[in-house]
Design brief:
The complex is a heterodimer of chains A (316) and B (246). With 316 residues, chain A is α/β, with parallel strands linked by helices. Helix content of chain A is 37%, strand content 29%. Chain A contains eleven helices and 14 strands. Chain A has a six-stranded mixed sheet with strand order 6-7-8-3-9-10, sandwiched between helices. Chain A has a four-stranded antiparallel sheet with strand order 2-1-4-5. In chain A, 38% of the residues are buried. Chain B is built from eleven helices and no strands. The longest helix of chain B is centred in the first third of the chain and has 32 residues. Classes of the chains: A alpha/beta (316), B mainly alpha (246).
């Protein structure tokens, strides 16, 4: 495997005596989107601030594209684009003025500056508003300017801290599309507490709770957690519940209504084929059969809630 | 660094604040300037006979510069208050902090950008006494020396204001504390015996300004201002760096 573009080792951060981030490891490879999930106050923003060089870690090291963020901050920072929770904008400037300034402070040579600004404007769909003052733009557009600012110097890694918070559903969809586009050329770290966003955008997921990592795997694995061993069945002329219970593998049947049933089964015996067979032969008039999915929220709550109970033994 | 200076300067001038401050301070100074001219006209007849009597420069330009110093004392906090405090409040500081810039570049950029505003103000003020050259001979060395003194004064006000602005998120608090600090440094030697060379009079911004205004440029006075400027700029850099650890 190639070496990661961004890697952080045993990152910890104290605020006074309070531990905000505990021994976090991070690695982002080329061209992937890493989702960083957690409830509010879990330490997401603190981690993002540390990765972007805005906050010094109490312990641990961060290296970006081979440069150590603490000992070679200038070189390392040239390879990251950062959008904090609150987009860092000078609202009295116009979009073009602001982005030209960003291009300058990121030391883009003057020959390429105009091109870099235009590319960022185009990629973030800011063409129509480029001459307007940032303070006159809607929140969605301001967020886009924030993203444009993060990608203007084509950094290797882009860190986005809750980029869709506080936007309306249409804006959220647009920003997500924008993130997808950006992810084709850059590696992205995306922090969020909105779960579908992770499903939609991310290749890998890290879940953090109370400063510690509780889940670290691909999005597929997270989705496997969502699968459960139960079916939802709709039958127009259903048999008795006892009859359904007799099907091989079924462990419990609950009637959700007169025609809908929840069927739980042993994971190793999926009863779907036998249900189908019986439904045809006994004329139950099957209209729907679907595996029940745990919502991502359930999985998330499970993962988060497991963790503290494991730690109680160690703490005392 | 120069990018930041330019940016800071530009942002200052797209806000009405800078224009308003320039206009109003010039209005007040012009009024005082006319007052000084009036006074000079009145006593001109009486002093013309005395050999070695003060001339136009001493009676008009230097009092005007002295007034300008007082105006600077009042203005500097208003201009410097937003420098870092406002960036904190608007959350725009991360933009600078995550860009490949060192803390000293950020601080110096902001400092130079703001100082250029004061340079413009001083140049505009200088036009008033220089306009008298149409009608009379002026002591250009004295005027240059006075302007140099004002420049040093403005440079140290800006450094102090910049530092105090880095301590808070509230521009108003930065303004009030800057004003108090400047005023205290202004009057600090009033408490002691003014005649005596004491630590207090050494600390006073005013006691180092008066000789320069009189055309008496000593390296110890210049050194004093340089020390003040460097000390507060260094404190600001330190403060910005330390914030990453808080």
């Amino acid at each position: 495997m190639t070496s990661p573009l961004l890697s952080a080792k045993s990152l910890s951060r104290y605020y006074g005596p309070q531990l905000a981030v505990n021994q976090l490891d991070f690695e982002v490879y080329k061209g992937e989107v890493l989702g960083f999930l957690g409830p509010n106050g879990a330490g997401k923003s603190t981690s993002m601030k540390m990765l972007s060089g805005n906050l010094a870690p109490s312990q641990g090291e961060i290296s970006i594209n081979g440069y150590d963020l603490l000992s070679q901050p200038k070189q390392a920072k040239a390879h990251i684009g950062y959008l904090p929770e609150q987009p860092p904008l000078y609202k009295e400037l116009s979009v073009i003025e602001f982005l030209s300034f960003c291009a300058r402070i990121n030391s883009i040579p003057s020959a390429n500056r105009r091109k870099a600004v235009n590319t960022a404007i185009e990629r973030c769909g800011l063409g129509d508003v480029s001459k307007r003052l940032i303070s006159h733009l809607s929140k969605g557009y301001q967020q886009r300017v924030g993203i444009a600012q993060a990608i203007i110097h084509t950094p290797a890694v882009i860190i986005l801290d809750e980029p869709t918070s506080g936007l309306d559903p249409i804006q959220i969809r647009e920003i997500r599309q924008l993130i997808k586009d950006i992810a084709r050329e850059h590696s992205v770290i995306l922090s969020t507490h909105i779960l579908p966003e992770v499903q939609m955008l991310c290749d890998r997921v890290k879940i953090i709770n109370q400063g510690s990592l509780v889940f670290n795997d691909s999005t597929e694995v997270l989705q496997q957690h969502m699968q459960s061993s139960s079916l939802i069945l709709t039958l127009e002329s259903p048999p008795t519940i006892e009859r359904l219970n007799q099907i091989h593998g079924v462990t419990a049947v609950t009637a959700l209504s007169n025609t809908r049933f929840n069927i739980q089964y042993q994971p190793q015996y999926n009863p779907t084929p036998s249900i189908l067979e019986s439904a045809v032969s006994e004329q139950w008039q099957l209209t729907a059969l679907s595996p029940e999915q745990h919502s991502l929220e359930d999985v998330f709550m499970n993962i988060i809630q497991q963790e503290p109970s494991e730690h109680i033994g160690q703490a005392h | 660094m120069l990018t930041l200076a330019r940016h800071e300067f530009y942002r200052l001038f797209i806000s009405p604040l800078a224009w308003l401050i320039l206009a109003l301070s010039l209005l007040i100074l012009a009024y005082l300037f006319l007052g000084h001219i009036d006074y000079f006209m009145q006593i001109q007849g009486k002093i013309s006979a005395i050999p070695g009597a003060p001339g136009v420069t001493e009676l008009i330009a230097l009092p005007l510069f002295s007034n300008t110093a007082t105006i600077l004392l009042l203005l500097a906090p208003l201009i410097t208050m937003r420098l870092i405090a406002e960036e904190h409040r608007n959350g725009s500081l991360p933009l600078l902090l995550s860009a490949p810039l060192s803390a000293s570049q950020i601080v110096l950029g902001k400092y130079l950008g703001t100082l250029s505003f004061f340079v413009i103000l001083l140049l505009l003020v200088a036009i008033m006494p220089l306009s008298l050259s149409v009608g009379t001979a002026l002591d250009y060395t004295a005027i240059a020396s006075g302007l140099f003194g004002l420049f040093l004064l403005a440079a140290s006000f800006t450094a102090i204001g910049l530092f105090l602005s880095s301590l808070t998120k509230q521009p108003t608090i930065a303004a009030i504390s800057t004003f108090s600090a400047l005023f205290l440094l202004w009057i600090i030697d009033w408490a002691g015996n003014v005649q005596q060379e004491s630590v207090l009079s050494w600390l006073s911004l005013l006691s180092h300004f008066q000789p320069i205004l009189q055309g008496d440029i000593h390296s110890k006075d210049i050194a004093y201002y340089l020390i003040i400027i460097l000390f507060f700029l260094a404190l600001t850099v330190h403060r910005l760096n330390a914030q990453r650890f808080n």
